[in-house]
Design a protein that fits this description.
By secondary structure, the protein is of the alpha+beta class. It is built from six helices and nine strands; from the N terminus they run αβββββαββααβααβ. A six-stranded antiparallel β-barrel has the order 1-2-5-8-7-6. Strands 3-4 form a two-stranded antiparallel ribbon. Strand 3 and strand 4 form a beta hairpin. The two termini are 20 Å apart.
Length: 172
C-alpha cells in the first residue's frame, strides 16, 4: 500500500528524470497544452520531496508565454494544468497551480543547461524567457497500465483492486 508521500516522491523522481510535461492554461484554449521541458532546482529537493517551482524555458513570442503575461498584466493569476507521463508509463499525473513569467537573468543563468542550450543562440538570446509553475496539487497514478488492466478484465479480474492504493490527490 503506497502512502501519499510515497506517491508524491515517485512523481518528483520521475519528473526530475524524464522532464517533459504538457503545459497549458486551465481555462481557455479549449484545453490546449504543449510539450515543454520542466526544470527542477536540485537545491530545492529535501530528500524525496521537492519544494519549489517548476520552470520552463520558452521564447517571448511563444503563445503560452504571451497569454500568461497578458493575464498577469490584468492582475490575474493564470491557472495551469500540466500533464506528465513517465517514460516507462508507470507514473501519470495532472498538476494544477499558478503560472507566471520572468526574464530574470540570475534565474536563467542558474537553470541553464545543455538541454536548454540546444534551443537557443546562447544565454544572451534576446527571446529567452521563463514560465514558472507554482504547483499546488496533483492527482497522481502509479503503475496505471491500461494494457494490464485490460488483460485482467478479459480473464474476469477486477483491475480497480490493484490500483486503489496507487492513486492519490496530493498537495505539492
Amino acid at each position: 500500500m503506497a502512502t501519499d508521500a510515497e506517491i508524491r516522491s515517485k512523481f518528483w523522481k520521475a519528473l526530475k528524470s524524464d522532464m517533459t510535461m504538457f503545459l497549458g492554461l486551465a481555462e481557455g484554449e479549449d484545453g490546449h497544452a504543449r510539450p515543454m521541458t520542466a526544470q527542477l532546482e536540485d537545491e530545492l529537493f529535501d530528500g524525496d520531496e521537492y519544494r519549489g517551482p517548476v520552470w520552463f524555458f520558452t521564447a517571448t513570442d511563444n503563445q503560452l508565454y504571451r497569454q500568461v503575461q497578458q493575464q498577469e498584466l490584468g492582475d490575474a493569476s493564470p491557472r495551469a494544468m500540466a500533464h506528465f507521463v513517465s517514460k516507462g508509463h508507470d507514473v501519470w499525473a495532472t498538476v494544477h497551480g499558478n503560472l507566471s513569467t520572468t526574464r530574470d537573468r540570475a534565474t536563467i543563468d542558474r537553470l541553464w543547461n545543455r538541454f536548454v542550450a540546444a534551443w537557443y543562440e546562447g544565454k544572451d538570446d534576446p527571446k529567452i524567457a521563463l514560465i514558472r509553475l507554482d504547483p499546488e496539487d496533483a492527482e497522481i497514478w502509479i503503475d496505471a497500465s491500461s494494457l494490464v488492466a485490460g488483460i485482467k478484465m478479459l480473464i474476469g479480474i477486477d483491475p480497480k483492486q490493484d490500483y486503489k492504493d496507487k492513486v492519490a490527490e496530493v498537495r505539492l
